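Interim report, section 4.2 (structural modelling).
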Amino acid sequence: MAMQGLSRRGILGGTAAGLATIPLSGRAAPPAPDAPAAIPPPVRTPEMQDITLQVNGRRIALAVEPRTSLLDALREQAGLTGTKKGCDRGSCGACTVHVDGRRVLSCLTLAIRCQGHAVTTIEGLAIGEELHPMQAAFLEHDAFQCGYCTPGQIMSGAALIQEGHAGSPEEIREWMSGNICRCGAYPNIVAAIQTAASEG
Amino acid sequence: MPSLNYVAPATVQEAVRLLAGASGLAKVLSGGTDLLVQLRSGRTRPELIVDTKKIPGIIGIREENGGFVIGAATPGMALFEHPTLKQTWPGVVEAANLIGSKQVQGRASLAGNLCNASPAADSVPAMIAAGATCLIAGSDGTRQAKVEDIVTGPGRTSLARDEFIVEFRLPKREPRSGDAYLRFIPRTEMDIAVVGCGVCVTLDANGVCTAARVVLGAVAPTPVLVPEAAAALVGHKLDDATLEMLDAAARRACNPIDDKRGTIDYRTKVAGVLARRTAAIAFNRASGGKSAGGH
Ligand SMILES: Cc1cc2nc3c(=O)[nH]c(=O)nc-3n(C[C@H](O)[C@H](O)[C@H](O)COP(=O)(O)OP(=O)(O)OC[C@H]3O[C@@H](n4cnc5c(N)ncnc54)[C@H](O)[C@@H]3O)c2cc1C
Ligand code: FES
Ligand code: FES
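Predicted structure of the assembly:
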């Protein structure tokens, strides 16, 4: 046990340090979301199992309980807090990420189930300094107010274009209906998705 | 909190062995859109989660003898994307696609919708109307069951503790037949049915109904197959008198709850109206029309 705990901490530390090197988007640099010291290693419980996740192209070793959601694993263990927790029960879409290229709700996904699958979060969407077209379109259209729902909206919007359902504003509204925006930025969100779709 | 174990067996036999050997409550996991919510709220406290997703064939759709075999954990989105399923059994596909948001549909399965055993589960009336059956695996081997024989009450099924559903079978659709599912909800999306209705009819060359199945959801502790409503259709065309008989039979089959979504009177009335509308779509499809469904 102690040995396991130690080695896990080593791996975690290494991973978090690796994550911190991810270039941030071109905007004024926010504090690194994943400063290693900010993530205390979880207290090891007997139920915990060691898993390796493939997140944004990097391997991340974690120890999770079987009940741990992908959302909690990302936020509380991998330090990737870009993915938001709105309802924690599948109703709001704030936690949307891609698993093997398809959008899923990370609050309704067990982390342990994601072994061997490629997870992409909002942190992994930009390529280096270059924003993903959906991120750029959200900026251009001012498609957010408080921004809490935005990572989920962007991940959902990016997948929607891949799925081929961004043909009309009506179609976009229908296929984005799982992403709630409490601030009511919907008109700008639809406009942003239309722009990104027309560029794609 | 009792400790929880997670296993992902690669064969049906191994899954059955794990379910049979569990000392406490064991839960089968398909899409997890019900199970994870219930785990978190503490409504269910299993000791073991048996994830079926590594079992070959548990996700996927294949055509067989003119019908379809649908793996138990196949998500609703896969039903929607299948090239021929939607043309053959549009009611079943539409019902599955009413479940939650697109993200939820990327996970939510027919087996989970059925075995969660909510009276308001959307795909269940549609599957029963279509005459769907399921293949159940257990310690004694496999057995076939009709979908209408699975749910026994809210949250309860007829499956034994070592049993789980492996796949569903939708029969070959008869010539001149059609199915439909409608639900009534206060909003257009992301809500639970106040009433759901599945109808499948077969017509003769003159448009007279020769066979029918009418199923209501959310108006009783389980989805209910209503033979009296089917009898109101058989031998008739879809005229006003037939619709009136159907409406009355559907209302008589109701034994709903009173809650914030609808009073008993309201749900009963809506059941009759919904049965009329659903039957109209099914008749239209059976006579070759391409009437679209709705919510
Ligand atoms: C935001 C949201 C909206 C929703 N909206 C709707 C809606 O509009 N209509 C609706 O009907 N439902 C709705 N649901 C409920 C849910 O999504 C569906 O019931 C879904 O079909 C469940 O499927 P699943 O694969 O996710 O099941 P799971 O959560 O994996 O399982 C559900 C139950 O079935 C059991 N089970 C799973 N697979 C099997 C099997 N192969 N054999 C035996 N037992 C099994 C599990 O043990 C569990 O008890 C919604 C859920 C959410 C989170
Ligand atoms: S946090 Fe996952 S859907 Fe709301
Ligand atoms: S921008 Fe505030 S919730 Fe959407």
